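Z., the sequence and structure:
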Amino acid sequence: MKAIRFHDRNDLRLEDVAAPGPLKPEEILLKPIVCGICGSDLHEYAHGPIGARRTAHPFTGASMPQILGHEFSATVEAIGDGVTNVKVGDRVSIQPQMSPKDHFGRKGWYQLSPEFAVVGFSWPWGGMAQQAVVKDYNVFKVPDGVSDVQAALVEPAAVAVHAVDRAGISPGNSVLITGLGPIGALCAMAARAAGATTIFVSETNEQRLSQIRDLVPEAIPINPRHDDLVEIIRQKTIEGLGVDASIECAGVEASVDGCIDATRPQGRIVQLALIPERVKTDLLKLVFKDIDLRGVIAYPTDIWPRVLELISSGRFPVERIVTSTVTMEQGISAGFDLLLDPSNREMKVLIDLT
């Protein structure tokens, strides 16, 4: 079968690989339909290995070269003995996190386990292939009202919904989202679905900033390069105190500082973006404003049915972030390489595997 495999930094190949062999009792054979290219995939390609391993993973045994792809929808082609949650022919959305049944695994917080693994990074299979194998707990049946594209986007949508949960957003709240990549855009949409009535979005890329008008028309766009972010937010929040919550998706020091300045006393800031270097910030502002600063990573695995329901209801139209769909043969040049070009105008690129 064909698969897109990561061999090393700047070495990504579409190549023929051996198809999966016999299934273990808890395993499921999938035919991927659509797979998203995530920012994590781009970091792996340009700066890795990060999630992929040169030596065998202690829980899964996976090592490079690694088939990429963790945001995907699929059809069930075969099931191992004992699999009861799906049957052959079902359409499924993939929850890619894996963990042994340790303390965190039992709670559904797989990403906090010391032996945490992810399909497409640290498991022998990934979604950018003609077939993939996962465990039974990695699949959720897709309702009839959810499309294959929507099902592939449940994974990044779950990241956004969990961030909104951690931000404590409730009906009537105001929120600031900094950084309008796909996750930032989904956070703005998830905040609206949670009932936020005033949504500010901060982004220095004018192309990205213009896209939010189509995704969340009521959002208030701010370009901090020439707009006074804090002053605009003061003018449009109760008594000029600032937003109830901020979700930082840009991953730069200035954005972190902006969130602290723009959030009201006793508000909440969620740090969602991964910042590779240390940042300097004025912690006294956090203290004197009594702000709750929360880190967030991935999502609890039991969030999948809730996100599918939000999408099915029409309140969370995740498919609207998609700007291009490419074939498997185009995936590297018109997907990965294009998205790494700073001049590109894409928000979200999907790979069609049918």
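The radius of gyration is 20 Å. Residues 106 and 151 are 25 Å apart (CA to CA).

Let me know what you think.
H.
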